[in-house]
Amino acid sequence: MAALSALVAKPCLVIGRAGMDLYADPPGTPIETATRFTTALGGSSANIAVALTRAGGRAALLTCVSDDAVGRFCLAQLDAYGIDRAHVRSVAGEARNSLAVVETRLENCQSVIYRNGAADFAMTTNDVEAVDYARFAALVTTGTVLASEPSRSAAFRAFDLARAAGVPLIFDVDYRPYSWASAEEASQVYSRAAAMCDVIVGNDVEFGFMAGAVEKGLDKARSLIGDGAQIVVYKMGELGAITLTPTAEIKTGIFRTASLKPTGAGDAFLGNFIASLGQGQGVEQAVLRGSAAAAIVVSRVACAPAMPTRQELDRFLAFHSGPTLA
């Protein structure tokens, strides 16, 4: 993955959703009794871009937002986080930005997501063909962008164009069943995407889903390495992760913190993992830094605002007792 050394010199292009998150306030309040909410930038792709930027990298977002107040909120937040939005298009009509109403609590945490007529699914091949991929160090996408047309075809076109430009592809499986017409369709599309990518990140359930059975998930991850992927991160929750490369399998643990909520960990992991690779860290150290960032985010309110800076992550690692294996 020599091309990943350019991740600091060049920005990463992240494809996918930006939305508004509404958090029941104060933290711990159930949605059904809440009378006050706070707002934050949301959407897995936007969160990854924020994580990567705060970790010392640079990011641009490729997506569509609704041409209304919520869409303008997302644009203003992208500006505030220093994310390049030159390839974010506003769409009129009935399209609406994703909206998530979320609780900040661990037990029975509720997240109600509104995705009907989602604006990010309006991304077209014209949007992705307008990009100069040589400007970017990597193309990063999540599985959400593949759940509907025309976004799905546009994403695969972007994959082809990025590969033609010599740009590595990074894929976070991020399976959300409610976004898909059927599990069979999702499995086929995810398997097609993963086979094209250089770095694939997912959890044991997601790899098992692609394989057809949970117990076959690790074999699926190994098969992707055999088919040409350079790094596959197989996350196992409390059990840590197994990171696969063509020459090694590396098992790492998790960093335990006083968690407030379960959301945002995967986005924090991926953004910091990519940034760490770009900053010259080895694969194992990049995984550990991503895991530490995930631990920080679940101990804070919200997702995008909770992403640690590089300095905060360094301090956490300096004073934390270290990762543990369950």
Brief descriptors of the model:
single chain, 326 residues, alpha/beta, UDP-N-acetylmuramoyl-L-alanine:D-glutamate ligase, 4-stranded mixed sheet, 21% strand
Give the full name of the CATH homologous superfamily. Answer: Ribokinase
Rg, Å, rounded: 18 Å
Number of strands: 13
Number of helices: 10
Number of domains: 1
Residue windows where pLDDT falls under 50 for at least 5 positions: none
Description of the structure:
With 326 residues, the chain is α/β, with parallel strands linked by helices. The chain has a single domain (2-17, 44-87, 120-319), classed as UDP-N-acetylmuramoyl-L-alanine:D-glutamate ligase, CATH 3.40.1190.20. Helix content is 35%, strand content 21%. It contains 10 helices and 13 strands. The protein has helices at 44-54, 69-80, 125-129, 151-164, 183-196, 204-211, 217-226, 265-278, 283-298, 310-319; strands at residues 12-15, 19-24, 37-42, 59-66, 84-91, 99-102, 111-114, 138-142, 169-172, 199-203, 231-235, 241-244, 249-252. A 9-stranded mixed sheet has the order 5-4-1-8-9-10-11-12-13, sandwiched between helices. Strands 3-2-6-7 form a 4-stranded mixed sheet. Helix 6 (204-211) crosses helix 7 and helix 8 runs antiparallel to helix 9. The radius of gyration is 18 Å and the shape is globular. The two termini are 30 Å apart. The model has no long low-confidence stretch (mean pLDDT 95).
